[in-house]
Write a structure and sequence with these properties.
Distance between the termini: 47 Å
Order of helices and strands: HHHHH
CATH topology: de novo design (two linked rop proteins)
CATH architecture: Up-down Bundle
CATH superfamily: 23S rRNA-intervening sequence
Low-confidence stretches: none
Mean pLDDT: 82
Shape: elongated
């Protein structure tokens, strides 16, 4: 089982990048603003992918994928700042930019197609009482849809 977004390669790549960003920032001395931005932006990528994948309309889904894409681009810019300030070597910067670059490419494609992966709906149908009262509805046939409305005065 699992959520639909967990099946997306772009989501798994984003989670991998968050892991790197967190470990990198743990050892980073100083550079508080860039560190905070990298943590925030890196975490926003998978969060927006997950939320966007769960949206019902292509427009909503695309908007969240675009926000995630913007956060991945922001991570690249933060890495540039950290590199120019000497907190990240040019080699490490280039190596670590490969993943957000790949994420941006995948999100660009997903945003164009309005693509989504959904959960298996069958897992949610078991044992769910569709109404809001507390009884289990064992005495009512759920296929009974031919009920006629009461006429005025029949209450």
């Amino acid at each position: 089982m699992g959520f639909g977004h967990e099946k997306l390669d772009v989501y798994r790549a984003a989670i991998e990048y968050v892991g790197w960003a967190y470990r990198f920032c743990e050892g980073l001395k100083g550079h508080r603003n860039a560190k905070d931005q990298l943590l925030r932006a890196s975490q926003a990528i998978p969060l927006n992918i997950a939320e966007g994948n769960g949206k019902a309309t292509d427009g909503d889904r695309r908007r969240y994928f675009e926000i995630a894409r913007g956060s991945a681009l922001e991570c690249g810019a933060v890495q540039d700042v950290l590199q120019v300030c000497g907190a990240l070597s040019p080699e490490e910067d280039a190596t670590r930019k490969a993943l957000p670059d790949r994420i941006v490419a995948m999100l660009t494609k997903l945003g164009q197609r309005g693509y989504a992966v959904h959960e298996d709906q069958a897992q949610y149908a078991v044992g769910i009482d569709p109404d809001t009262d507390s009884d289990p509805d064992t005495d009512v046939n759920p296929d009974q849809t031919d009920r006629q409305p009461l006429a005025p005065g029949d209450a």
